[in-house]
């Protein structure tokens, strides 16, 4: 039974090293390929031969990566299917633990290879003074003309070799299994509301209803349902923290945070920079958030009531109490309207989105048994993107499909790059520029979904979301700094640390009577569980995306040309799945914000 929405996808470039018929879930078939790579490395006599060897290694990595992605996609599309779960866990438990030490050996061979220094000279500038051709000649040059072809790859491999500890392999397997448990638990939660079983994602719709009592009822029901699972979520997280602390210590770091910074390849900023970023959010963004909240309170007429505060269920409704924006009914309609936006934006991007539909590289509707959130995943051998989301007919879904399409366009733009490490995505700080920019650029044509009046309302909703996401990013980021620098903390201390951040970044919302829900709000945030420390990137990227948007206001054509060019020239990185962040404290959707 094929549990994937798409069928067989041919490799973008025919395999020349990995056999056509190999079963990439069966370790005895994979191991000999590593033997061959090890042996051949010693026989490389020229940089050309070493480059050829890198491409073969790349081909194997991409094929294995795609195998792992396929199993992940099947599992998240069917969290209630035992076969999908088994196939995913089999790979996690039986292939990855064997793969890691062999990858490490290959990486070590590379790092110690006698031709490595020669390889690093390829593409290096002849002198340090040359400029990019498109640099303004009147400005002093700040960028070198060329970066050595393998410089960033080399830096990442070296970093990986330095961090690798064989004793961490079993711990990482345990970690992956706990993450899968979190996905499964989150995806399984439903409530009975208004005569039917609803997923918590589907309940999000009621928070946009003008009827305040209905909103409260829906919100309370979801909060109560989640609170029933508090112990399970906390237990999963306790075990994750313990594993991560051990992983960090094994690698020689005094805490997991410092390890995670290195692991994520954060060569350009430090924990102190994150703290400064978050302070800036408190200083610059929070006044705007409070202003928007005060407007909302006034427009909703709450200031005439007693006590008249904004409540958690007042944050997603239209402040003028208009019915929710209804961008589309069926998911098919969302896809065809999104296609029209891209048709107007750019022919090449439009073609890419059409190709994804033709190949069924989309699973977009929300249903029970699907993991929460949305993501874009790249199938590394066919070099094609796949988009996963849980659309239910909200404005937020329009933002999400534009966002994930931005990631998909990025993946398509790098198809011709043969080095897997370089195709596998630039650093997340840049990847999210591709997606967040697409939200803003696509929004210029949002009339494809709405009347003129609703279109400006939708744009406002989106831009308020941009403002609101900064405090949420700061909250999630600061919280994780606290978690991993306070080993042995109790649940009460953890809740107190969280609540302090909610006070600092939550704005003027009255949670009285719902203190427990507030203290556990972070349980909804997928990243905290399964992608530790992956969050500040969104803040960095959002600033970049706003700049792309500002450029497009000055010169649409040039901004888009630059946008399309950027993935090809960006430096490479290290992640597979990209998510859209969403401020759960601001919009308060009952959904982990794993976009
Ligand atoms: Zn993203």
List keywords for this structure.
two-stranded antiparallel ribbon, binds zinc ion
Provide a descriptive summary of the structure in words.
This protein is mainly α and 595 residues long. 59% of the residues lie in helices and 5% in strands. The protein is built from 22 helices and six strands. The chain has a four-stranded mixed beta sheet, with helices on both faces. Strands 1-2 form a two-stranded antiparallel ribbon. A hairpin with a 4-residue loop joins β4 and β5. α1 packs antiparallel against α2, α11 crosses α17 and α16 crosses α21. It is globular and about 80 Å long. The C terminus is likely disordered. Bound molecules: zinc ion. Zinc ion binds next to α14, α16 and β6.
Number of strands: 6
Number of helices: 22
- Radius of gyration over C-alpha positions, nearest whole angstrom: 24 Å
**What is the 3D form?**
globular
Low-confidence stretches: 128-145, 571-579, 581-595
- Overall mean pLDDT: 90
Instruction: Provide the helix percentage.
Output: 55-70%
Largest beta sheet, briefly? 4 strands, mixed
Structural class: mainly alpha
Placed side by side, the strands forming the largest sheet appear as 3-5-4-6
Residue fraction in strands: under 5%
Compressed to H and E, one letter per element, the order equals HHHHHHEEHHHHHHHEEEHHHHHHHHHE
Task: Name the ligand types.
Answer: zinc ion
Could you give the distance between the termini?
28 Å
